[in-house]
Automatic annotation (TrEMBL):
Belongs to the V-ATPase 116 kDa subunit family. It comes from Candidatus Andersenbacteria bacterium CG10_big_fil_rev_8_21_14_0_10_54_11. Keywords: Coiled coil, Ion transport, Membrane, Transmembrane, Transmembrane helix, Transport. InterPro entries: V-ATPase_116kDa_su. One of its GO terms (biological process) is vacuolar acidification. Residues 230-257 form a coiled coil. This is Uncharacterized protein. Its main location: membrane. The chain crosses the membrane at residues 362-392, 404-425, 452-471, 483-503, 509-530, 565-585, 597-621.
Length: 660
């Protein structure tokens, strides 16, 4: 990375930020406090405008749902459904669109629709209150009784009806009439009217106190009965419903504004991003200064482009200094670039650390293929991912992942052929012929009948990868000029593990059986070197010796890390066993008369797709875990700052550069 400072006249401040935003080349850093804030000179209520446009878009989305007018989307855009539009086009739409007028029109529609919904809800609620009392023939003016007679509408549960009736009957002047009842599974409610002479009102109050009965006040005009008012309300609800749908149809015209409003929203959002980015710059009396990081290989090209676009610009560049922490941009070959998706899950390495992607790539493929271990599934993955890359619009990061999984599918084909995995089919049951002979010839290991062989392969992969981690760390130490650490902290451990492995193999007569004793002495001598050197950071001689002796515990850690690779055997066996079970189930339903072949096809397709999906996911997760837990920590601290140039983070629109 190279640090660059660009100074332009103050009148070009927004133009420069817009140019940088559109090209996404400069990772901004914050300069020292300026003589005047880059954004306090002109205060623009971007957040208010954004809120207004967002309100309009939410209204349109609601109208779409109510009108059942969902936008059409091409099948090619399943993974990238937003339109790709450059910044200039967004600004042109914003300049052409009269946002305040459009938003005001939509706000008026929304207010009217909201009022109609509220009025309709109020009328419906009143209807619901009146519904149990439809048989009541009194007018509203008669509900309060007279000077001498108290009249009450009461709702009481069926369980307490007799208790309430008895309590009311204590008043000699009382009378009670049941208007209706609503029953439920466990209980019910009875709606009644009662009258009593006001001299005995206390007895009626006592009836309410003894039960949970409630007095009801109906929202009834004085000149209408319940039936008349209910009919009027039903007419009102119908009228409001009709008016609502008419207004909804009128609001359909707003759908045509949706894309323009989306473009306007993102244009305003990008203006806000530039305003925020301007705070990292420095405003001087006559100029605006911005500072950031550029990739070294793009320095000349970007400087030339800036000079051409801003002839009056002044540009200075400088390499990264000691103590600075530049952002990290991984640079790999086209073949290795897809594996950056795995590295990014772990996090960026520090600027001074080694990019682990090239060293990790082959090990990730080997682990993934052993975890899936079915050539048929690998072939399906390759075809599906090739089709996805060929026929769908994919963003740059998505294309990386597709290519990574394509490579993983290809590796799985190789591993599956070597282990005889073809959709869970037992190769021995295939009809005799050249295809069967070729597949059996390729098959070197049978995981089902000889799982220990596959387990040894998994352990071998683990040992090689863990040794490779020391090699990478040794290279990092050498690059930093720490030759002592490279020799004693990396080289000595590599030779220690190799010697122990050779000694064990020799003692079992597997190889170099004539050198068993020599290898044992060599391993002991190597252990002595480790004891003598691994505690060298201590000043106390006893601590030096003790630290060196304790370092030999690293052999136990190495063994523990190696055992972690046994998960590959378990995952590979799971894939094969589930595939075999799916085939057995398909064979069982195939004998059903007439529809057996349909059932068998369904079972096979659904079962194998599920098996592929769940085990491919498991293979990816566990292969990644081996890199993150067993490999990367041996030489990588991580925590680097990702290279994030000033760019566009749109909500409704994508940057065309993301599809390059």
């Amino acid at each position: 990375m190279v640090k660059v400072q660009i100074a332009v006249p103050r009148r070009d401040q927004d133009t420069l930020l817009r140019w940088l935003q559109d090209r996404e080349v400069l990772h901004l850093t914050e300069l020292a406090a300026s003589t005047g804030s880059a954004t306090d000179q002109v205060v623009t209520p971007f957040n208010v405008e954004l809120a207004h446009v967002q309100f309009a878009l939410e209204f349109i989305a609601r109208i779409r749902i109510e009108l059942h007018e969902q936008p059409r989307r091409s099948w090619r855009n399943i993974f990238a459904g937003r339109p790709a539009v450059d910044l200039e086009a967004l600004e042109a739409v914003l300049a052409r669109l009269n946002v305040p007028t459009q938003v005001q029109t939509i706000r008026e529609m929304n207010d009217r629709l909201t009022d109609l919904v509220a009025a309709k809800r109020d009328a419906a609620d009143t209807l619901a209150q009146l519904q149990p009392w439809r048989e009541l023939t009194l007018h509203g003016s008669e509900m309060e009784g007279t000077a001498a007679v108290r009249h009450e509408l009461v709702c009481v549960s069926v369980a307490e009806l007799e208790l309430f009736r008895t309590a009311v009957a204590a008043a000699r002047t009382s009378a009670m009439e049941e208007i209706g009842r609503v029953m439920t599974k466990k209980n019910g409610t009875v709606y009644i009217q009662t009258v009593v002479h006001r001299s005995e009102s206390a007895l009626l109050d006592a009836a309410f106190a003894q039960t949970q009965a409630e007095a009801v006040k109906l929202p009834l005009p004085p000149d209408r009965t319940v039936t008349e008012h209910a009919a009027a309300l039903e007419h009102t609800v119908q009228r409001l419903e009709t008016e609502y749908h008419q207004l909804l149809e009128a609001a359909r015209a707003a759908l045509a504004m949706e894309q323009d409003l989306q473009f306007a929203y993102d244009a305003l959002l990008h203006r806000q991003e530039r305003r925020q980015a301007g705070r990292a710059g420095k405003v001087l009396p006559f100029s605006f200064l911005v500072e950031g990081w550029l990739p070294e290989e793009r320095r000349e090209h970007i400087i030339a482009a800036v000079t051409e676009a801003f002839p009056s610009a002044a540009i200075e560049t400088a390499p990264a200094k000691a103590g600075e922490d530049p952002p990290v941009l991984l640079r790999n070959s086209r073949l290795v670039t897809p594996f950056e998706a795995v590295t990014n899950i772990f996090g960026k390495p520090r600027y001074t650390e080694i990019d682990p992607t090239p060293a990790m790539s082959l090990f990730f493929l080997a682990a993934f293929s052993m975890a899936l271990t079915d050539a048929g599934y690998g072939a399906v993955m390759m075809v599906a991912l090739w089709a996805a890359g060929r026929f769908f619009r994919l963003k740059r990061e998505m294309r990386k992942m597709v290519r990574l999984l394509f490579y993983a599918g290809a590796a799985t084909v190789v591993a599956g052929a070597l282990t005889g995995g073809w959709f869970g089919i037992s190769l021995e049951t295939l009809p005799a012929g050249p295809i069967r002979d070729a597949l059996l010839t390729l098959k070197l290991i049978d995981p089902v009948s000889s799982p220990m062989s596959l387990l040894l392969v998994a352990f071998a992969l683990g040992i090689i990868q863990l040794l490779a981690a020391w090699v990478v760390r040794g290279y990092a130490h050498a690059r930093a000029g720490d030759w002592l650490a490279m020799v004693f902290d990396d080289g000595a451990w590599i030779t220690m593990v190799v010697l122990v492995l050779l000694w064990q193999a020799s003692s079992r007569g597997l190889l170099l059986s004539a050198y068993t004793q020599l290898l044992a002495y060599a391993a002991l001598a190597n252990a002595g070197i480790l004891v003598a050197t691994q505690g060298r950071s201590y000043k106390n001689p006893l601590l030096k010796l003790g630290g060196g002796a304790l370092s030999l515990y690293g052999l136990v850690s190495f063994l523990s890390d190696t055992l972690s690779y046994s998960r590959l055997l378990a995952l590979g066996l799971a894939t094969g066993v589930i595939a075999l079970v799916v085939n057995l189930l398909g064979g069982m339903v195939a004998v059903v008369p007439y529809v057996g072949w349909i059932l068998a096809a369904t079972v096979l397709v659904v079962g194998h797709v599920f098996n592929l999906g769940i085990n491919a996911l498991g293979a990816f997760i566990h292969s990644g875990r081996l890199q993150f837990v067993e490999f990367f920590p041996k030489f990588l601290e991580g925590g680097g700052v990702p290279y994030r140039p000033l760019g566009r983070v749109g909500k409704y629109v994508d940057n065309p550069a993301e599809f390059d």
